[in-house]
Amino acid sequence: MSALARAVVAADPLGATGVRAAAERAVLDHVACAALCDADPAARDQASHLLAWARAEGEPVAGRPVLGTDARLAPSRAALVGGFRAHLLDLDDTHEDVRGHPSASLVPTLIALADDAAPLPDVLAAHAVGLEAMARLGRALGPAHYAAGFHPTATAGAVGAAAAGAHLLRLDEGTTARALSLAASRSAGVRAQFGTPAKPLHAGMAAQAGVEAVQWALAGIGAADDAVAGSVGLLASHGVEADVREALTSGFGQTWAIAAPGLWMKRSPFCSAAMGLVEAAAELADELDGTVDERAARIVGVRVRMRPGADAALVHRAPRTGEEARFSAEALVALALLGVPRDLAHLGAEPLDPRARALAGRVVREHVSAGTRGTPSAPGPDPRTGRAVRDMWSGVDVELADGRVLAAQVDRPAGSPQRPLPDTALRAKAAEALGEERAAALVALLAGPDATVGALTALAVAGAP
Questions:
Q1: Separation of alpha carbons 325 and 314, rounded Å
Q2: What pLDDT is stored for residue 1 in this prediction?
Q3: pTM of the model
Q4: Comparing C-alpha atoms, which of 7, 27, 208 is closest to residue 121?
Q5: Can you name the CATH fold of 3-262?
């Protein structure tokens, strides 16, 4: 029987230090992202297309809510649309072990499978369990999985969503094993979709796969004992060696990935791989004077430096639209140097600002190994987990027409686990999405001992008071 199923059934995360607080922040951020989807016309348009398709099958009386909307859909459809909405703007959380976006897959799964009377702490616990499964799968799959073109939000996310759902519903070990097995057969998503609406659809697809895997397992559909870590299962099919597969659940529950290393959280709608570069460029922008056009004229060239492979997600070197620019080191650094906000007005589906596009053409990428060329050594292991901390060092050098060279470096960007987004900033994000009163009510609800899923969704759907 699946060792992962045993671990999921036995897990008890909320007693561990930092887990509940981290899960509360993750759900608050997720609700904000789902609501902010409608702030961008192109994102709202894309979300409406998927919702219209889902509604075409009819809205069941006992349907589950889609956060940020007034829709109630069949559970798997609610999960699909909910995950899509939450990830559409790339404002949602990420996790470096996953190399993807956990909450956009996990929270819609849990809202879809829970009933309104379910205790909210059960959802927080299941979120932590699902993220732990995703993180362990992400570490097992390793950077080669990502480099080959797979998107772990979709691949690890399907199994993680099933793990979360199984834990929430307190399924027994056999039923949990079948749910994980079925989800493994739904694990798919490629990075070719980055910069298009199909990329956020991956989060919805993972959530949908998780819901359906749990439902199918409950319906009695049979499946292999272990299609995740077995000899011809998901991990093996991606080239993961037997010893790594066998260690997948080693120490499960001793530490929790949601708390250590923790989640990355964002204030701006672009890929987390560029956060350090943008922060360094913004620091240099403070030294530049003049209008956007004057700044552009003064900059001769730009060199952006990062660790080998750290820019794998930044797939667009010459983006045409703001949406593509969310995944472009060149464009994001150009916008920051020109003093142009990295917001929805400039990172939407419209053509990228031509001045930023021109400057992006003068940006060169350079990969620099840790401890070489005047850069810091690789960070030591996280003392909480003993595992290596991902090196996200970033540097930006700007050559000016007067011969000067401006340089800035960032070891870990704001919003990373080592420099977490303050609670005040996260609450401001929620207030922007929901309004001050609803955001404050949601914060209080998440921290309360007796809250229910129904109380959460009542605050998080469109038209809530």
A1: 9
A2: 65
A3: 0.95
A4: 27
A5: 2-methylcitrate dehydratase PrpD (1.10.4100)
